[in-house]
């Protein structure tokens, strides 16, 4: 098992209930591939470093994950498809 940090930014125009659904869906994507989510952090709405698709801020979420590379590859694939996620990044953590 490897350790990862997965961060993604949800569009600020998405309502709170829909944002919660997106977070739950992204958790399921990881868990369905055998990953264990050890921490979920809602970092709130923050200003972006630069404008993305006319958005100047977004809702940031950070997952700490233990799992195999296939799980984060699937997360990456699904995050690219989801139109409500404007940016995401997966970083391998050292213990």
Annotation keywords:
globular, 95 residues, 4 strands, four-stranded antiparallel β-sheet, 2 helices, Alpha-Beta Plaits, alpha+beta
The counted number of beta strands is: 4
Query: What is the count of DSSP helices, taking H or I runs of 4+ residues?
Result: 2
Please give the alpha-carbon distance between the first and last residues: 11 Å
- Largest sheet features: 4 strands, antiparallel
The CATH architecture designation is 2-Layer Sandwich
Radius of gyration, taken over Cα atoms and rounded to an integer in Å? 13 Å
The CATH C-level name is Alpha Beta
Class per helix and strand makeup: alpha+beta
Detail the poorly predicted runs. none
Helix share, percent: 25-40%
Indicate how many domains the architecture comprises: 1
Overview of the molecule:
The radius of gyration is 13 Å and the shape is globular. It has 95 residues and is an alpha+beta fold. Helix 1 (16-32) packs antiparallel against helix 2 (69-81). 32% of the residues lie in helices and 49% in strands. It has one domain (2-92): Alpha-Beta Plaits, CATH 3.30.70. The protein has helices at 16-32, 69-81; strands spanning 2-10, 36-52, 55-67, 85-92. Strands 2-3-1-4 form a four-stranded antiparallel beta sheet, covered by helices on one side. Strand 2 (36-52) and strand 3 form a beta hairpin. The protein has two helices and four strands; from the N terminus they run E-H-E-E-H-E. It starts with a strand and ends with a strand.
Quick take:
The chain has two helices and four strands, in the order βαββαβ.
């Amino acid at each position: 098992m490897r350790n990862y940090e997965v961060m993604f930014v949800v569009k600020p125009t998405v309502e709170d209930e829909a944002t919660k659904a997106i977070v739950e869906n992204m958790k399921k994507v990881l868990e369905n591939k055998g990953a264990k989510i050890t921490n979920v952090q809602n970092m709130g709405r923050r200003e972006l470093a630069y404008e993305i698709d006319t958005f100047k801020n977004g809702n940031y979420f950070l997952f700490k994950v233990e799992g195999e590379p296939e799980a984060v590859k699937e997360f990456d694939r699904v995050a690219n498809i989801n139109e409500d996620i404007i940016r995401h990044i997966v970083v391998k953590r050292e213990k």
